[in-house]
Amino acid sequence: MFPTPSQSKLPVKPIPGDYGLPFFGAIKDRLDYFYNQGRDEFFSTRVKKYQSTVIKTNMPPGPFIAQNPRVIAVLDAISFPILFDTAKVEKFNVLDGTYLPSLSFTGGYRVCAYLDPSEPNHTSLKSYFISVLASKHKDLVPLFKTCLSQMFINIDDEMGSKKKANFNDPSDAMSFNFVFRLFSDKDPSETKLGSDGPAIVDKWVGLQLAPLATLGLPKFLKYFEDLLLHTFPTPFFPVKSDYKKLYEAFYESSSSVLDKAESFGIKRDEACHNLVFIAGFNAYGGMKAWFPTLIKWVGTAGEELHSQLANEIRSVVKEEGGVTFQALEKMSLTKSVVYEALRMEPGVPFQYGKAKEDIVVTSHEAAYEIKKGEMIFGYQPFATKDPKVFDNAEEFVGHRFVGEGEKLLKYVYWSNGRETEDPTVHNKQCPGKEIVVLLSRLLLVELFLRYDTFTVETDALPFGSSVTLTSLIKATSI
Ligand code: HEM
């Protein structure tokens, strides 16, 4: 609960910051954000300048894609959770922030992730998907293990021939294969998608998120890129036939999942466009950014952590007689390492919500009044690396959430909610939350059952990181 001004002992202050001149202020902030400063520096210089973790700023894309780029940014662990309070903030069309991509990308429907929980369709769609996911519970571990085995075979082959192996491509192929098979009981290669699924989804998601991305081109091309990606809404036509192919592949292969939609009062074609979005954008898109990030943090943590993880994983698997739900639950270091990577670099770093009423938000130092209708924006890496909550907040500490450390899990927000809370039809928390944590643990388990240690080289991508495995040492004892 958030204190009202009279309950709060903290002084109510005006929100500092500057939107600049209409139009020009938004362009200046956009250039600072993408090119002159970069994301983290953009926020840290403003926090320093205004001596506040709640500030006014413009957020990209701005003109001519977003009508109103002005936001109140919440940049600490205490103010950030205002975005989870759906009684106070409206989550109508704010998935991508201050703009909504053309609905042609989603078959003309506003899919679940764009809906506010007060809309009846949010309840139908979210309960439908929670029910679908529950019905798939027993398939998760065996299916993901099968997909991982193929991924490691591909990685070993590349490692053998080139002495290093790219992780992103096999991880993307594995994630798409897993998600498609989870919902459709069919391998995508048996459909008209063949092996093109990941490339098609990349293009479709990429066009929707282009206004939020930079390609990292040489500096002298910044105005060109800004004009190309951030100035005009991206059209649907370049991906129209690909989307049709994707939709038809799901439509033809997911009969049992789509049959279920009727009992939730959802039309078959609306259910299928939602299924494509959940499978392609939410699940595959999330995993595409997240799995390489997880491998990056574990890889750079070094050999000592690797040997502790390998010991824990191998001894628990031996004790339990295999990789079971119960075995995964017992791996306290493995669990902590996954949470720590989610804390360091959440797969989806931005959240938005519009104030439904005048509200007071508190940071560590002060209380601020936000007016009804103002857009609140949270940059999650600043909230989950808040030095007033986490010791050595910028450092990856594998054991952070072991034992007493579990108490800090309420400050891990990657799923658009606290790690200690659950997704429901009343909130906007990711219904894949438990699955993502489970699959992340499984990825580490299968990795350290096969290998003793590994090293990585990494590079930033528009969303997530590119990861190359530079050495991979086969397990000496299991
Ligand atoms: C690493 C992978 C994933 C990440 C990082 C992730 C993250 C998130 C986040 C941050 C949100 C909230 C978006 C917002 O409103 O601001 C969200 C929503 C959602 N996610 Fe996930 N997710 C992942 C995987 C999945 C999976 C596997 C599924 C389902 C199979 C899923 C289904 C959804 C759905 C349906 C929503 C919308 C919830 C609502 O409208 O109430 N996600 N996810």
Automatic annotation (TrEMBL):
One of its GO terms (molecular function) is iron ion binding. Its cofactor is heme. CDD domains: CYP74. One of its GO terms (biological process) is fatty acid metabolic process. InterPro entries: Cyt_P450, Cyt_P450_E_grp-IV, Cyt_P450_sf. The lineage of its organism: Eukaryota, Viridiplantae, Streptophyta, Embryophyta, Tracheophyta. This is Allene oxide synthase. The keyword Chloroplast does not apply. Keywords: Heme, Iron, Lyase, Metal-binding. Heme binds at residue 430. Transmembrane segments: none annotated. The keyword Acyltransferase does not apply. Belongs to the cytochrome P450 family.
